[in-house]
Amino acid sequence: MSQASATQVSNQAFDNPATSDTATATTSKYASGEFFEFLWRTAGVQAVGLFIVAYLMYGYQPGVGASSQELVAFYTGHSTRILIGAIFGGLTVLNLMWFAAALRTALADEGRDGWGAAATAASAAFGGMFLLLITISSGLAFSIAGSGNQALISGLNDFSWALVVLSSFPRAMLIMSGAFGFWRAGLISNGVFAIGVAAVVLGVLGGMTWMSSGFFAPDGAFTRFVQPLILIIWVFAVTAVLLKRSPSKGAGW
C-alpha cells in the first residue's frame, strides 16, 4: 500500500471513529452476540451457586412466632453474615433475571413468545418478592433488631415467612413457562414435560403451606428445603435444553 493510500485510510478512520470502533468491537469474541447469549444461558447455574452461598451465609432464620430472645440473638448476633448473604442474594436475583431473558429469547425463536412473556413476568414478580425479603432481613440485621421494638421485630420476621410462601405462585409460573413452552415447541419429551407439570403442582402447593407447625408450615421443611430444591433442579434442566440449542436467530443479544 502506498503512503498516500495509507494516509487516506487513516484519515477516513479519524473522520468516522464509529466505523473504526465497530470494526474493533466485532473482532472480539467477548463483544459478540454468541458470547453474551452463552453467558446468560448459563446465568441460571450462576444464580444457583450464588443462592447456595447466600443460603449458607444467612443461616437458619427463626420461624414464625419465635421468641424475642431468639430473634434478637439471630439478627444482631449474625448481622454481618446476614448482610453478606444479602449481597449474594441480590446477585442471585440479577442472574435469575438474565436467565429468564435467555429463556424468553429461546421461546421467541421457536414461535412461543407467549410463554416467553410469561417467563419474563414471573421472573420479575418472583425477583421483586425475593428482593423485598432480602430488604426486610437486611433492615432487621442492620438496625431494627437492635432498636428494642419487639413487636416490630416479630412482625417483620413473620412477614418475611409470608413472603416466602406467597412467592411460590410466581415461582410456579416461571417453572410452568419453561416446561409448557419447551413442550409446545417440541424441545422436550412428554415424560420430561410430565415431570415439569409435577414441579408446577408442587410449586403451587408451596403457596398453601399455612399450617401452624410441621412440614407444611410457612417455616416448615417443605418451604425451607423442598421448594428451593425444585427450583434448582428446574434451572439445571432448562440450562441443559438451552445449551443444546444453536445461537438465537434474532439479534436480541
Q: Output the structural class.
A: mainly alpha
Please state the average pLDDT score.
Answer: 88
Query: H/E series, N to C?
Result: HHHHHHHHHHH
Q: Determine the oligomeric state from the structure.
A: single chain
How many strand segments? 0
- Radius of gyration, in Å, reads 23 Å
Please bin the fraction of helical residues.
over 70%
What topology does this entry show?
Elements: H1 3-15, H2 17-26, H3 33-41, H4 43-58, H5 68-77, H6 79-109, H7 113-142, H8 150-166, H9 168-184, H10 190-205, H11 221-244
Helix pairs in contact: 1-2, 4-6, 6-7, 7-8, 7-9, 9-10, 9-11, 10-11
Overview of the structural elements:
With 253 residues, the chain is mainly α. The protein has one domain (34-244). The chain is built from 11 helices and no strands. The chain has helices spanning 3-15, 17-26, 33-41, 43-58, 68-77, 79-109, 113-142, 150-166, 168-184, 190-205, 221-244. Helix 7 (113-142) packs antiparallel against helix 9 (168-184) and helix 9 packs antiparallel against helix 10. The longest helix is centred in the middle third of the chain and has 31 residues, at 79-109. The protein starts with a helix and ends in a 9-residue tail after the last helix. Mean pLDDT is 88; it is low at 1-7 and 18-25.
